[in-house]
Amino acid sequence: MAQTQKKFMNSSADDLLRAFKIKVTGNIIWAGGITELILSVAQFLLGNTGQAVAILCAGVFFTGAAWFYQGRRVPILVRVMFIGLLTIISVISIYKNGTIGVYWTYPLLVACFFVFSGFLGIIAAALLTLIFGVTAIYAMPLDDGWRIATTLAIICALGSVFVVLLSELQKLLRKLVVTDTLTGLHNRHLVTGVLEDAIYRFRRYQRPATIMMADLDHFKQLNDTHGHLFGDQILKQVAERLQSVLRRNDQVFRVGGEEFLVVLPETGNAEAQVVAEKLRSLVSEHSFNGKDANVDVTLSLGVAQYAENQTWVEWLNAADSALMEAKRKGRNQVQVAEAPAERTAEPA
């Protein structure tokens, strides 16, 4: 079990990106809260008691929020309040201090792209650009006001372009991380999430799900005889054949050198066994055309339907054990895992 768990429990690209966004958002709120606390002291010293109290309250609230949500996703309402209160303080500062007050608008504008994700950040930044631009034109000499409004608009535009490009790069990175470059199938990085989703649907809606572990028989001998490039050609063709039989909502992963995992949602053992036999015959009963030779390859499969209270690791182990049984009994066959309740205890 430990080996199976280690094999599949790699942090996905989505998990890493989500953790990074949480950390960045938390750090920005920490920085904003601490900065407000420092500014409140400065305002007290300058005699601006009302403004100092408002900034102090905001600083205490956001510092507390940053501490409370440390390591967790900050709710959207708190983020909106964070940007909103800082915007109000910046507008007041522009009215009272003129050009000096404008300096705080630029980091706040940039912070929108980090505090909010994707197009929500662009919308927030555009709204702040409009508010600060109008405020600057109204509260300052026109020559200064329109220049400030223009620079804010330029920063907003550049930041928006950066967000769009970053979003596209993230999509490309995610595709590269979760895709097996040889076969075009998903790799093991998505397995955990897919299995946990199937388990959730079973527990919430009692919808069955079955998985199949499939392994090409004696594939090492094929590589030794014809070379690894020839073996790669065969793996590509096997992947194409597997996909040709499966439904649109079925998923197939390459999880090892010549090992594949198939996830069949809304499918019980009986239906899955029929699918497994189709896959086995499609691979085993039709020759593969390599660059230098035609070869016959057989496929062994282990089938396991999800059973109540299983973890995803236990579910995978059940399919893996059925695959090992198919190998032990002569290969080129399908074996179905026993339900956990049907398993007998091993003698002491």
TrEMBL record:
Chain ranges of the GGDEF domain: 207-339
Protein name, entry field: diguanylate cyclase
Catalysed reaction, written as an equation: 2 GTP = 3',3'-c-di-GMP + 2 diphosphate
Any one GO MF annotation of this record: diguanylate cyclase activity
Annotated EC: 2.7.7.65
Transmembrane segments: 28-46, 53-70, 76-95, 107-140, 146-166
PROSITE patterns for this protein: GGDEF
Presence of the UniProt keyword Membrane in the record: yes
Keywords carried by this UniProt record: Membrane, Transmembrane, Transmembrane helix
Domain of life: Bacteria
Essential cofactor(s): Mg(2+)
Matching Gene3D superfamilies: 3.30.70.270
NCBIfam families named in the record: GGDEF
